[in-house]
Amino acid sequence: MNIDVWLFFISTVFVFMITPGPSHLLMLSNSMSSGFRPSIATAAGDLSANFIQMVIASTSLIAILNASQRAFMIIKWAGVAYLIYMGLKLLFGKKTGAGKGSPQSVKTLYWQGFITSAANPKAVIFFAALFPQFITSTSPLLPQFAALSASYLFIDGCFLLSYGKFADYLSKKYRHQLANKLNKVSGSFFIGAALLLGLKDIDI
User: Fold this and answer.
1) Is the residue at 92 inside a domain?
2) Which of the two residues, 179 and 21, has the higher pLDDT score?
3) Please, how many CA atoms are within 13 Å of residue 192, restricted to the half-sphere of its CB?
4) Distance CA 181, CA 203 (A)
5) Number of domains in the chain
6) Residue 97 Ramachandran class (φ > 0 left, ψ -120 to 50 alpha, else beta)
7) Is residue 153 part of a domain?
8) Does the model's pTM come out above 0.70?
């Protein structure tokens, strides 16, 4: 893979990242309610699921996924239901005062990110369709796959951290105006993430 192909891949990924997806909204929610540093675990969970999806795509297990539409639907809607549950819990839970919402454990934040990303198994199809467009068959495949995967994960991680930092900044700057409302804002992001996950065929 030459530098021109790699740069074109980077540009393509940036285009896909422009529109916020469920994982980005989840990052906004968790950063506002638990703070930026703990919410990094959410980004780690999302990227972990993406990595597993890339590995599945690279080992041709996509055929199994395509053959089992029922399994896809179960995974997808289980993730939607989970996000809606978390959103409603925040919307109708106890008020938290003028500071941040009730912080969640790093483990919980990680699994929220992982589940949100893993609940979209069509991402496997996306990676299986995207990567071959930038791979040269005359060169070793594994190094090319590794370079594309690492580049994608790095860009996605930067977007997630940017969303998280922005949300943390807003919650600190407007904490008095947002007193007792952070949970409702965070809950709205959760439900928004669920709607995106349910309505969009592919979201990464």
Assistant:
1) yes
2) 21
3) 15
4) 28
5) 1
6) left
7) yes
8) yes
Give the angle 139-4-15 at the CA atoms, nearest 5°: 110
The string over 166-183, giving b where at least 16 C-beta atoms fall within 10 Å of a residue's C-beta and e elsewhere, is ebbebbeeeeeebeeebb
Running DSSP on this structure, what letter comes out for residue 104?
Answer: P
Has residue 101 been placed in a domain? Answer: yes
Residue 102, pLDDT score: 55
DSSP label of 138? T
Structural tokens at position 26:
């989840």
Task: Kindly give, in sequence order, each residue whose CB lies less than 8 Å from that of residue 38, ignoring residues fewer than 6 positions away.
Answer: 30, 103, 104, 106, 109
Phi, psi at 139, each rounded to 5°: -110, 160
Residue 187: which domain range? Answer: 3-10+28-199
Give residue 42's pLDDT band: very low, low, confident or very high (50, 70, 90): very high
Question: Is 99 a residue whose pLDDT tops 70?
Answer: no
The model's confidence at residue 45, banded by pLDDT at 50, 70 and 90, is very high
